[in-house]
């Protein structure tokens, strides 16, 4: 008998109930008890949805982030919050979100650093450690949820992050190696496992996704040390790996002295047979056969074709699961009211993926004939997608085939272009600009919602957005910025907005996925060959330009970022989809140029994070990603100035690729790192212009003129002043006008001071 189980379930709720509860609580509009009651109700709903499983994950629910939860479980709070007064939930949210000086009672403290969870668009709070860090167990959260689950009558399997992955994700504040803390950490894990055993847990899922990355010998040894130390515990451990292949870690993973191993059979299909061979006969193999990273229906018949021989070999030792936690997919396809019927048939969200798992389990345990109808239906859906004329567009395919290197090359070298651009744009030294978005006020969001619900007309909606754009332009003129933006009021999200307008894309109503904390994204669904029926941004940009004599920067999202933040096709390589996007956005660039827009920014916020988890695959990715950007951007005249923006600045390993993009100006996030991140641009003699951010937009704090001047002077020690721009770290959409105006006033004042000091 193969068992079926799940690694984790989305916690935001089918209608984002958790988001609204969190935000109401943070605004002081609801009590702690109300927030906790919503959370409890959501967990119950989630367990109901997973009732058919043999093992249900517990402890995967989080009020903010599962890594932060683990830090609290291990008693690893940053020193700066440890002694502050308030409830446990208070300190939890303090680490998660920081607390600013203007909150009542103060206790102000900066938030923990946030970074990407492997190659997903989910962000976790980075655990902070030093050589002095010591741990202590606080199992309350897990014990409470375990008891709740037992009461709800589900077979509960607690889920925790494993000790090696926990340390690997940690950042040492004193430059030490977090791995050195392993000996102090392991007794706490032992204690935790014993505590869970006492509470009735039979299995514990212990996530070690770092096993799919390149590990040096110390980290590999860390695995051996850790699991030998934990083997004496009474619970059975299922070590879970996901997001990739094990490769050189395969033997290590198979030999760990634990009761079971979960592997990602979507990205790591090729290794399953080998893992099944290597695992000794006392161990369970959990095969992650259903893709937890996308929204396509699984081809169940094809899956059974390769799974059945494995099942035969393993018998009772086989478990079936999604490839990874379902955190990365939306909750329920059944919520959708407007999805095209063809496309709906091709999709599976979290609930539907669990249905697929159940069918697979039955087919394996009782024979395919017992689920013949379901398998036939599934086959129909798979065939319909494969053969759909809506997926395939021969014109697009041939356009991609005809791409030549020349398409991605500017007419002249940067040194020649820049002179023409300067005389054309007439910009001062240290020109000032912003990254694109201005605050997305509740008012804007309400208007868009009303428009979507057809409560207001398209005309009224457009009038409202135009008024917002005019407001943003007037404010920027008052501020004295040099290159203006229209403010992106009309965009729900920088990726979804383009997805909605491109052919080959579908979008959902409720397909939300958590990005961080209460913030969610609704990745559009790239299902077919991509083309652009008509201009997407030109009218808005032209309108904005009509309001001012200052240069108006056209604002686009680049192909790599659109790709990385969408649900994409699994029937062709990502590189193909990316090139198709590149050709479509290139058309938009050229239409903007033809409409008289002289400065065009193409955001590639997700280019760096899209790097594969293994370094050995980086170059291939960078080759097609950078080529896609070049195709998008570089078909313009010398006089047209191309900007790009990336929100992260650790470019050490990829500076060559960044330079090869050949954007005239790149704006990056640097304010928090004190400009040290520019070192690599200096060392590499990066040739083009750079706008290192001087305003940390993630914080409500308002930068002073002096701070901005100081940061820019540091920048000028590394990059010649003639090539520097003055701008914030990123877009301002999550901030409020009351913060943005004084911050930008100080930024512009700083630029004036810098100019005065330069002559
Ligand atoms: N795709 C993507 N990934 C990204 C980023 C990004 O900007 N986009 N930025 C980085 C950080 N991640 C972020 C992710 C989300 C948000 C964010 O602000 N999300 C918003 C939703 C944005 C959105 O799509 N808004 C829609 C829908 C708004 C909405 O929720 N409307 C309510 C009603 C609104 C009201 O009455 O106030 C409803 O439909 O019920 C719109 O503007 O139209 C949120 O969670 O609140 C910010 C940063 C990395 N990854
Ligand atoms: Zn950004």
Bound molecules: the ligand Nc1nc2c(c(=O)[nH]1)N[C@@H](CNc1ccc(C(=O)N[C@@H](CCC(=O)N[C@@H](CCC(=O)N[C@@H](CCC(=O)O)C(=O)O)C(=O)O)C(=O)O)cc1)CN2, zinc ion
Q: What's the CATH class of the largest domain, please?
A: Alpha Beta
Q: Judging by the overall fold, what is the CATH architecture of the largest domain? A: Alpha-Beta Barrel
Major β-sheet profile: 8 strands, parallel
Our count of domains comes out at 2
Give the strand order, joined by hyphens, for the main sheet: 1-12-11-10-9-8-6-2
Approximate helicity band: 40-55%
Report the end-to-end length measured between terminal Cα atoms.
80 Å
Outline type: globular
Mean pLDDT: 96
Helix/strand-derived class?
alpha/beta
- Please give the radius of gyration in angstroms: 26 Å
CATH T-level topology of the largest domain: TIM Barrel
The low-confidence runs, each spanning 5 or more residues with pLDDT under 50, are none
The number of distinct helices, counting runs of at least 4 residues, comes to 28
């Amino acid at each position: 008998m193969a068992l079926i189980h799940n690694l984790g379930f989305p916690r935001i709720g089918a209608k984002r109930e958790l988001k609204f509860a969190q935000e109401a609580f943070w605004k002081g509009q609801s009590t702690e008890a109300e927030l906790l009651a919503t959370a409890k109700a959501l967990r119950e709903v989630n367990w109901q949805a997973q009732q058919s499983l043999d093992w249900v994950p517990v402890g995967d629910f989080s009020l903010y982030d599962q890594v932060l939860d683990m830090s609290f479980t291990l008693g690893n709070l940053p020193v700066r919050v440890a002694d502050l007064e308030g409830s446990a939930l208070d300190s939890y949210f303090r680490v998660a979100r920081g607390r600013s000086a203007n909150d009542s009672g103060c206790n102000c403290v900066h938030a923990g650093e946030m970074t990407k969870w492997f190659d997903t668009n989910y962000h976790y709070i980075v655990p902070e450690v030093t050589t002095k860090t010591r741990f202590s167990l606080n199992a309350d959260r897990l014990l409470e949820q375990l008891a709740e689950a037992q009461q709800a009558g589900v077979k509960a399997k607690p889920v925790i992050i494993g000790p090696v992955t926990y340390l690997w994700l940690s950042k040492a504040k004193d430059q030490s190696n977090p791995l050195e803390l392993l000996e102090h950490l392991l007794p706490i894990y032992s204690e935790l496992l014993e505590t869970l055993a006492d509470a009735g847990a039979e299995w514990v899922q212990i996530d070690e996704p770092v096993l799919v990355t390149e590990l040096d010998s110390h980290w590999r040894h860390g695995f051996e040390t850790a699991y030998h130390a934990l083997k004496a515990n009474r619970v059975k451990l299922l070590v879970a790996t996901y997001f990739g292949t094990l490769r050189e870690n395969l033997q290590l993973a198979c030999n760990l002295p634990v009761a079971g191993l979960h592997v990602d059979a979507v990205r790591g299909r090729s290794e399953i047979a080998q893992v099944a061979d290597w695992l000794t006969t006392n161990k369970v193999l959990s095969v992650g056969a259903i893709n937890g990273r996308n929204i396509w229906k699984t081809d169940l018949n094809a899956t059974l074709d390769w799974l059945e021989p494995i099942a035969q070999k393993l018998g009772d030792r086989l478990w079936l699961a999604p490839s990874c936690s379902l955190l990365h997919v939306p909750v329920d396809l059944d919520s959708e009211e407007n999805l095209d019927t063809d496309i709906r048939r091709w999709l599976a969200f979290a609930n539907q993926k669990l249905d697929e798992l159940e069918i697979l389990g039955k087919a394996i345990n009782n024979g395919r004939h017992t689920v013949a109808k379901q398998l036939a239906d599934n086959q129909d859906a798979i065939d319909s997608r494969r053969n759909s004329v809506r997926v395939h567009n021969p014109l697009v395919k041939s356009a991609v085939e005809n791409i030549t290197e020349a398409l991605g090359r500017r007419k002249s070298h940067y040194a020649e272009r820049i002179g023409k651009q300067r005389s054309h744009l007439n910009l001062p030294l240290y020109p000032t600009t912003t990254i694109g978005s201005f605050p997305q006020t509740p008012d804007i969001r309400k208007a868009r919602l009303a428009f979507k619900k057809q409560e207001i007309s398209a005309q009224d909606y457009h009038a409202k957005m135009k008024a917002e754009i005019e407001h943003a332009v007037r404010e920027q003129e008052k501020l004295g910025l040099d290159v203006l933006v229209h403010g992106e009021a009309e965009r729900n999200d920088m990726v979804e907005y383009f997805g909605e307008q491109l052919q080959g894309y579908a979008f959902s109503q409720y397909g939300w996925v958590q990005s961080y904390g209460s913030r969610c994204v609704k990745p559009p669904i790239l299902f077919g060959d991509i083309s652009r029926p008509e201009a997407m941004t030109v009218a808005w940009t032209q309108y904005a330009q009509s309001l001012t004599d200052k240069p108006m920067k056209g604002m686009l999202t680049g192909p790599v970022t659109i790709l990385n933040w969408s649900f994409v096709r699994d029937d062709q390589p990502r590189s193909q989809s990316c090139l198709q996007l590149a050709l479509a956005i290139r058309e938009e660039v050229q239409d903007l140029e033809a409409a008289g827009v002289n400065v065009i920014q193409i955001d590639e916020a997700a280019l760096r994070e899209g790097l594969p988890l293994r370094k050995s695959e980086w170059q291939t990715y960078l080759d097609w990603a950078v080529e896609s950007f070049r195709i998008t951007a570089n078909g313009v005249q010398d006089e047209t100035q191309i900007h790009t923006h990336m929100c992260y600045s650790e470019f050490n390993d990829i500076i060559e690729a960044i330079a090869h993009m050949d954007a005239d100006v790149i704006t990056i996030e640097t304010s928090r790192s004190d400009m040290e991140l520019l070192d690599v641009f200096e060392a590499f003699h990066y040739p083009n212009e750079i706008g290192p951010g001087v305003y940390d937009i993630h914080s409500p704090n308002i930068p002073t003129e002096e701070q901005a001047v100081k940061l820019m002077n540091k920048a000028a020690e590394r990059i010649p002043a003639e090539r520097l721009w003055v701008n914030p770290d990123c877009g301002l959409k999550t901030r409020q006008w009351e913060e943005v105006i004084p911050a930008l006033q100080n930024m512009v004042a700083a630029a004036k001071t810098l100019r005065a000091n330069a002559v």
